[in-house]
Amino acid sequence: MTRINLLPHREIKRRERRQQFYVVSGLMVALGLVIALLVHTVLAGYIERQERTNQIFRTEIQKLDREIAEIRQLREQIDSLLERKQVIEALQGDRAETVHVLSEMTRLMPEGVYLKSMKQAGKRITLVGYAQSNARVSHLMRALEESPYLTRPQLVEVKAVNVDGRRVGEFTLNINIAPPAAAEGDEATPAAQGTPARAAARGAQR
């Protein structure tokens, strides 16, 4: 009976399997490295594109911040100009208001009434003067009440005093300045009412 020694064949097979294992392991490692490199390259490309996008956003945000700062500065300048305009309009209104008030005082002051002082605090005017009689003070109050620029006269007090050897009444009177709209309306009403009256008069004359 012939005996065959199989040990060399087994050793060869074992080496071949070991070599195949090393080759396959090397290929797997190489494939893993290639895949990792590809993934890294793709991710790096994504990250680079995102960084460029973020940089564009940051640049635009900086531009918007500068524009917002300029708009805020312009708005502050506009608000300052509007405040100056309101102050100028208020001063012009007060100047015209003072002219109207003084004109009305001169026009409505009856005979026998003399003003000693006139003080204004906001829209209220305090008149202090002398009158030959209480009836003249009442006449002044009625005239002031009918004025389109003045309203709500209130008599504070009337007392008898001696001025230059004459006995007169010293009065203190408060009166308010009428709002511009009310004053304009009162001015327009007589004109509107007078027009039909004049037209009717001309018709009657014809």
From TrEMBL:
Q: Is the keyword Transmembrane in the record?
A: yes
GO terms, biological process: type IV pilus assembly; type IV pilus-dependent motility
Q: Which residues cross the membrane?
A: 21-47
Q: Per its UniProt record, what InterPro entries does this chain match?
A: Extracell_DNA_Util/SecSys_Comp, PilN
The UniProt annotation puts the region (Disordered) at 182-206
Q: Tell me the superkingdom of the source.
A: Bacteria
Alphabetic keyword roster:
Coiled coil, Membrane, Transmembrane, Transmembrane helix
Coiled-coil segments, which residues?
47-91
Q: What is this protein called?
A: Fimbrial protein
Q: Which organism is it from?
A: Pseudothauera lacus
